[in-house]
Write a structure and sequence with these properties.
The chain has 172 residues and is of the alpha+beta class. The protein is 27% helix and 29% strand. It has 3 helices and 7 strands. Strand 6 and strand 7 form a beta hairpin. The protein is globular and about 45 Å long. It starts with 24 loop residues before the first helix and ends with a helix. Bound molecules: zinc ion (ZN). Zinc ion (ZN) binds next to helix 2.
């Protein structure tokens, strides 16, 4: 089931998401819905707070953008970065911050520990786009958005722009 993606400045995006205590059917449904929602909106990653669920759950599928190794769709519960190395700069966008892009500096490689959809502990070495996606989605779990890295002036301009769009939009 496709879920609705919430956008900045919705306060749910600012909450620190809670760890999942047990990977059960409810979590598996959430993961499946998030994958469907991510594909429907053309994203390469999605975090549960973006569909208004404040849990430490993310999905990632970078295969459409990456030239290197194919990872398939990754369903990730309680992610933790245990190691980082190097630096990479990339212009990022976010489904919860529409019409906004910003150059972000991230770790070039990270080691990710997580539970898969069956609750099995996994470790994954992530580099390049996958490393960026992992860090972007974990930021969501900590209530952080890419717009936080813009200047105060740019943040104000963005909020004014989306406010204006709302007024111009058709209401039913
Ligand atoms: Zn995002």
């Amino acid at each position: 089931m496709i879920r609705k993606i919430i956008t900045h400045p919705n306060p749910i995006l600012r909450k620190v998401a809670k760890p999942v205590l047990e990977v059960d059917d409810e979590i598996r449904t959430l993961l499946a819905d998030m994958v469907e929602t991510m594909y429907a909106d053309g994203g390469v990653g999605l975090a549960a707070p973006q569909v208004a669920v404040s849990l430490r759950v993310i999905v990632i599928d970078i295969d459409s953008e990456a030239s290197e190794k194919k990872y398939g769709v990754l369903k990730i519960v309680n992610p933790e970065i245990t190691d980082r190395e190097g630096q990479i700069e990339w212009e990022e966008g976010c489904l919860s911050v529409p019409d906004f892009r910003i150059k972000m500096k991230r770790s070039a490689r990270v080691t990710l520990r997580y539970l898969d959809e069956n609750g099995i502990r996994k470790t994954l070495d992530c580099k390049e786009l996958l490393s960026i996606a992992v860090q972007h989605e974990i930021d969501h779990l900590d209530g952080k958005l890419i717009i936080d890295c813009a200047s105060g002036l740019k943040q104000d301009m963005y909020l004014k722009k989306i406010e204006k769009k709302k007024k111009e939009g058709i209401s039913f």
